[in-house]
Design a protein that fits this description.
Number of strands: 8
Radius of gyration: 16 Å
Strand content: 25-35%
Structural class: alpha+beta
Distance between the termini: 10 Å
Oligomer: single chain
Shape: globular
Order of helices and strands: EEEEEEEHHHE
């Protein structure tokens, strides 16, 4: 699954999702179902306390090379250098910011994060391993 079949030089046209970090199962990397106290993996059945959930990057992009448009999703720690922190730490920073600012509507901080990610990626050219 991690083997690269080829390289694609392309520019990012748009960001396809606004949620770049998700709670991920440590066994199978599927999205966890969280409630206030527990997490559950619907794929492999892994469970635990919500506070112990791991987080992972998932960035869906629309990209273009000289001939075609592609939808591509980039997962995991390869995005750490672009965000400057691990997904785990970014999630913690977001939670801490919302708590310290007394922000009850987390939509404004989420919007600011989306704008920052768009600024960093849209219009830039990258080499993608596909």
């Amino acid at each position: 699954m991690n083997s690269v079949q080829g390289l694609l030089a392309a520019s990012v046209i748009s960001i396809q999702n606004s949620c770049f970090v998700y709670p991920a199962c440590q066994n199978c990397f599927s999205r966890l179902t969280l409630d206030s106290r527990r997490f559950n993996c619907p794929k492999c059945g892994c469970t635990g306390e919500a506070k112990d959930a791991s987080y992972r990057y998932r960035l869906s992009l629309k990209i273009a090379d000289t001939n075609d448009l592609f939808d591509i999703t980039v997962f995991g720690s390869c995005l750490d250098p672009f965000f400057g922190v691990t997904a785990e730490n970014l999630q913690r920073y977001i939670q801490d910011f919302n708590q310290l600012s007394g922000e009850t509507n987390t939509e404004s901080s989420a919007r600011a994060l989306v704008q920052a990610v768009e600024t960093c990626f849209i219009g830039k050219r990258f080499i993608f391993g596909v």
